[in-house]
Amino acid sequence: MNDTNKRLVITLKSNNAKGFDTISLLLLAISYGCFLYKAIMQYNIVEIMVFALLGALSGIGYYRIKQGRWPINYSYLVFTVTGVGWFFQGGIGFAIGVLLILAGVLRVKVKHTPTATATAEGVAIQNIFTKHYTWAELGNVIIKDGLLTVDCKNNRLFQKETSEYITELDEAKFNEFCAGKVHGQ
Prior knowledge:
By secondary structure, the protein is an alpha+beta fold. The protein has helices at about 20-40, 45-65, 75-85, 90-110, 170-180; strands at about 10, 115-120, 120-125, 130-135, 140-145, 145-150, 155-160.
């Protein structure tokens, strides 16, 4: 069989993003509080109305995300709008805006389901960032007892639990394919 087009994808256990969620939502709440405080202190009724509306929309969005009725990419939009709001504050607000937009991008990446993909070229581990290993770099790649182990020839080791939905047949196919590639077959 020709393995040049073969791709085996294994789903890995999801990242625990609760801590990241808590910190990022706290940053948003503090931002809204700062914006609202500034608007109230300057008696700017238009800004007060805008930030009250943004706060209400964010609350509705958060509620809908928790119910599973809205895609998680909505959070990126909230972080972007808040970050742009900080850009207009000037001074340190520019740095805070950049951090909020970066938090939005990372939040989307953290929520992504991690995978391990074996191809004719090598193995790619896609988590928050993607790491590619060629077969020449690898000493062994195996899934055993729900644990993916990628053993590099330079003594680096990567281990990650696989999803509970991976069957023994999936494990066997993945292990057979990887063993053939590691040993040059």
